[in-house]
Design a protein that fits this description.
Elements (H helix, E strand, L loop, with lengths): L7 E4 L6 E4 L9 H14 L1 E4 L6 H9 L20 E4 L27 E10 L7 E5 H6 L3 H7 L3 E4 L1 H7 L6 H6 L3 E4 L1 E3 L6 E3 L5 E4 L4 H15 L5 E4 L6 E5 L3 E5 L11 E8 L5
Parallel strand pairs: 2-3
Antiparallel strand pairs: 1-2, 3-13, 4-15, 5-13, 5-15, 6-12, 6-14, 7-8, 7-11, 9-10
The structure holds N-oxalylglycine and manganese (II) ion.
N-oxalylglycine binds next to strand 5, strand 14 and strand 15.
């Protein structure tokens, strides 16, 4: 078993993001290591575990050491295990389609009553370069607001909707998806349950401000997102073979970058999510 002594957590971004070397995630973590990993995750928001090669079952076992696995009901293309979601640019014919999903700033499953705590994404096949994943620090973005702007966000709630977020990109949610994910209201500023830090909670699935005209709310959210995704709040993850990322959905936005030729190169990753708690 790997012990804590062998594990190094080193910052890689400017501000947040860290790499973890010396751990084999295919094996169970002892208690002290698991706690150190979780503490590192809370502190750095994104952990990149290097040199992993996990089967879907091993990825599920790794994920479950930190809480409850979230199931994916709709649109799952399966990795041989229904609890692992395949993130891929391949078409039905198995060839690169040119299409990349999740390219808008979002936080996973924010339309759920208990949005994801963490997402775990493991590189399976990556393009020769590019295909980065970008992160924005919503705690730093909140902290950088003026006192007056912070006060104006006090008590504001946002309606998150899978149906409306599909509409915004010219897609249609199916009746089953709509039943499965009714609109959900969450505070715009949430308090991190572990660190106590306040952060902005919004992104692609955030439709409008609860109790305000839709257009007014959308304009306010767009302005806030423009503030929160400035370069100074970002970490860009350049994937290496064997990387497994674990990020904190409670205080980050993320998106896939299209900085590769998606009609030519395959980009395939395996994804698991941990269920979170109701934002407060
Ligand atoms: C996700 C996601 C981004 C990427 O899996 O939730 O947003 O870079 N992925 O593929
Ligand atoms: Mn996502």
């Amino acid at each position: 078993m790997t012990t804590l002594i062998d594990v190094a957590i080193r910052p890689v971004g400017n501000g947040f993001g860290a790499e973890v070397v010396g751990l084999d995630l295919a094996r169970p973590l002892d208690d002290a290591t698991r706690r150190a990993v979780y503490a590192g995750f809370v502190r750095h928001h994104v952990l990149a575990f290097r040199d992993q090669r996990l089967t879907p079952d091993q990825q599920i076992a790794f994920t479950e050491q930190f809480g409850t696995l979230e199931r994916h009901i709709a649109r799952n293309r399966g990795a041989g295990n229904p609890l692992v979601h395949v993130v891929s640019n391949l078409g039905a014919d198995g060839r690169p389609s040119g299409k990349v999903g999740s390219t808008r700033w979002h936080t996973d499953k924010s339309f759920r009553p208990e949005p994801s705590l963490a997402t775990i994404l493991h590189a399976v096949t990556m393009p020769p370069d590019g295909g980065d994943t970008c992160f924005a620090d919503m705690a730093a973005a909140y902290a950088a607001l003026s006192d007056a702007d912070k006060a104006a966000l006090d008590g504001v709630r946002v309606v998150h909707s899978w149906e409306l977020s599909r509409q915004k990109i010219g897609e249609r949610a199916t009746p089953e998806e709509i039943r499965d994910a009714p609109p959900m209201s969450h505070p715009l500023v949430r308090i991190h349950p572990d660190s106590g830090a306040k952060s902005l909670f919004m992104g692609e699935h955030a439709s409008h401000i609860d109790g305000r005209p839709i257009e007014e709310g959308r304009a306010r959210l767009a302005a806030l997102e423009a503030h929160a995704t400035q370069e100074r709040f970002l970490y860009r993850h350049r994937w290496r073979a064997g990387d497994l990322l674990m990020w904190d959905n409670r205080c980050l936005l993320h998106r896939a970058d299209t900085n590769f030729d998606a009609a030519r190169h395959a980009r395939v990753l395996h994804r698991t999510c941990l269920r979170g708690t109701a934002p407060a």
